[in-house]
Design brief:
By secondary structure, the protein is an all-beta fold. Helices cover 0% and strands 50% of the residues.
Length: 342
């Protein structure tokens, strides 16, 4: 993918099922080049999560992927995240969302083979105060400044802020008029935003939850599916509409008008990710099987073309840019997970 590299570095792992949720570990271990979690998308109650590792090696023959562990998960995960707490020696924690928010602890099994033992630490029940049933969670985000805080979004119009140490909900608020599809924290521990089926991006501050700010509404109030906050420059957010070929870049200092709209795709956008180490680079993937990397430094002038493009074999359902190893992006399509050097 890089023009300077003599060859493309692409590593592929094939799972026994369609991959949907996917996450890079924030913590590196000494004899593993990569460590990721991948969740199955099977249309039944019983689904799975695999922890995948890749040993060191510059060629596909030297390094190899292997399954460090696999555990059952009720329904497909809507999202997987590793704890942003990178302290070595601490617990190795993973969270998944679906019918509930679950917290998992992974520990070495002592076999010296790099394999792990998964243990479910907590199940956090999102029951709405105004309802008898538990509404499924569409997404969640882990606060990087305070890793005890996780925010979840739900189809019941609410967002819930959890203290995962106590397992208690700190607050639950009605965030949108319809389903909430995604939630993301800004840099720092207090500000977060959400998007939903009502077509709005709303910003909240944990210090004053009685107010929220509508940053953007889609022109026809079409649902907004995903939200991604720029961690290097928290003035910028990215989102996209359902069945849209464009990624919308927002500047919270100039609400209601996109600062840029990124085209480039010939199919619906499915996932977006800001570069963790750069304030002006973002990746988008879609049904056209393309992963596009954009340089936004010309803004507010229009950004016409991506600086890098990669074509996968099928529609790309999932995308993650590694915070711990920012030269690497992972994509998932069908039953394959690919790691690309950018």
């Amino acid at each position: 993918m890089s023009n300077a590299a003599p060859r493309k570095e692409i590593y592929t792992y094939q799972a026994p099922w369609t991959i949907f949720a996917m996450s890079w570990s924030q913590r590196l271990d000494s004899n593993t080049q990569f460590r990721l979690a991948a969740g199955s998308y099977v249309e039944q109650y019983s689904n799975s999560v695999q922890i995948i590792k890749r040993t060191y090696g510059t060629s596909s023959h030297e390094g190899r992927f292997y399954k460090a562990c696999e555990f059952e998960h009720p329904y497909p995960c809507t999202k997987i995240l590793w704890s942003p707490d990178q302290s070595q020696g601490g617990r190795d924690i993973l969270a998944t969302s679906g019918d509930y928010l679950r917290i998992w602890n992974l520990s070495d099994d002592g076999s010296q083979r790099g394999t792990l033992i998964p243990k479910k630490e907590a199940l956090l029940n999102n029951q709405n105060k105004n309802s008898e049933y538990c509404a499924p969670l569409t997404s969640f985000d882990w606060n990087e400044t305070d890793p005890t805080i996780v925010g979840t979004s739900s189809i019941d119009t609410t967002c819930t802020i959890w203290d995962i140490e106590t397992g208690a909900a700190k607050t639950q608020l009605i965030a949108h008029d319809k389903e909430v599809f995604d939630i993301a924290f800004a840099r720092g521990k207090d500000v977060f935003a959400s998007v939903g089926a009502d077509g709005s991006v709303r910003m909240f501050d944990l210090r004053s939850l009685e107010h929220s700010t509508i940053i953007y509404e889609s022109p026809q109030l079409d649902p907004l599916l995903r939200l991604c906050w720029n961690k290097q420059d928290p003035n910028y957010l990215a989102t996209f509409m359902v069945d849209s070929y464009k990624t919308i870049i927002l500047d919270i200092r100039v609400p209601s008008l996109p600062v840029a709209e990124l085209g480039g795709h010939s199919g619906c956008v499915n996932a977006i990710a800001w570069a963790p180490h750069s304030s002006c680079h973002i990746c988008s993937t879609g049904d056209d099987a393309q992963a596009l990397i954009w340089d936004l430094s010309p803004m507010p002038k229009p950004v016409e073309d991506p600086i890098l493009a990669y074509n996968a074999e099928q529609e790309i359902n999932s995308l993650q840019w590694s915070a711990a190893q920012p030269d690497w992006v992972s994509i998932a399509f069908s039953d394959k997970l690919q790691i690309l050097r950018v």
